[in-house]
Amino acid sequence: MSEDTNFDPLSRRGVERLVNDCTLLLDYLSRMPDARLDWCFEETRGRASGTPPARMAAPPAETHSKADFLARLTTIGSQVRDTLASTFPVDSTEIAFLLAARDFLSAIAWPASVETIRVTQSYCAERQRLRQPLWRRAIAWVHGAGPTGPEEDRAVYYGRRIASRRDRYQFMLVSLAAVTIWLSFQTLVGQRLVLEANRFATQWAAHETNLRKASDEAIPLLRTRHLGEERFLESQPGFQRYCDYKINVHSSQLLAVAGGGAGDRSAMGVSDPSPGRTFFLDFNHQRLCDEGEALRYRAAALQASMQRWYGDIGPVVGLLRLPGEVYGIVYEQACIARVWANRALLDTPANAPRPSCSFLPARGGFREPPPEVAPTATFYVRAVGTEVFTGGMLAQLLPCLYAVLGALASMFRRLGQRVQAEALSISDHGGMRMTVILGVLAGAVIGLFVGQLQTMEGTETLTLAGFALLAGYAVDRLFNLFDNLSSRLFGEPAALVR
To answer: Where are the transmembrane segments (predicted)?
Structure first.
């Protein structure tokens, strides 16, 4: 990449560059629909339609008409092209005219300039090359038709780099949008599971209270009636034993009590489809026991749903834990090497106790709770884990992802507008990366200061992520707001005081 900082208009190369710049600006103005060049000359101003441009300039001296201006530029261009390379093509007066003509054309071409037009043209050419199949690009590169080497112009170089970076960011935008939508869906599912677990815990607590009350009323009565039986002399601490008082009677026993045998029913061709009947103490006993069975079935269904949700979200958890796991492996291997080196240097006995090289405490396996407390204990552990994970997703990860999506959308929209106006500059190459970085920072700031927004039911929503998307889209104005706010609170820095 060659630098164009040393521009000498008194050299032949400088004169050729001036002619090329004027030609480039004239080509740009000829493609503009507002006829900016016609508004600057009295001869053609009456033929110009519409409203005058925002910026107008006076033409160079002695070229009061558009025809004279173009004729003189054409004459100088022909002299530069036809003159031998060993001789200087023009005199000082014509150099001054070229400088004035370039400034005049640059003024009316604003916001475009010579550099932005060249960067935009290089960007469009590289975009067209990247749209070709890979095998065609490989053939062109073999035949030397690929990007030029280190002697290429700076504007051409950065135009190609901006086009390549745009393709990478486009792929990142599509991938990030898919990941964000999937994580948002999983977060909503996790929120729903937490909500259902909380509702289940409330209903289970109410069921436990009713069951304890009924047990306190029924067990003393049963103890009085069955004073000599060992079964009722034991303590009755749990609500589950209240439902043990139901009696399962086989159908043959029911027929015997009713006065008929099973053989009589078979002889009549009548078969009892049910194996037996279950008798309860009263209707309240039956209602509470059936309610407990229904809650246990619901607990099993919710537990299966949570297990599936944990299986779906497992890759994300593993990806988040990957840096820590890698660090743990590296730390452990380095610790083992250090212990081995210390033993070798200090001549430590072989039977000496070896220090632990794990930087994490030992973690035991999860012990399943007993059946009597399984629903409440299991749902407490799983609901807390799900709530912590979804809360972290909503408070930190999703705001950053949505802010980056908004920043990328804003960047692509701004890039398209600048390409359309041929105002793509070299600074846009670094501005693209800075936009993504500021988007991540904006999402982190929002997650840090705003916190978790809650609904009437007490669960997190995606409103915070939507706000992060908006902040990422307007990330430049967001940090301008921070600058104004900090200036009002703490005053402007000494270097910024006007």
So the answer is: 388-409, 430-450, 462-479
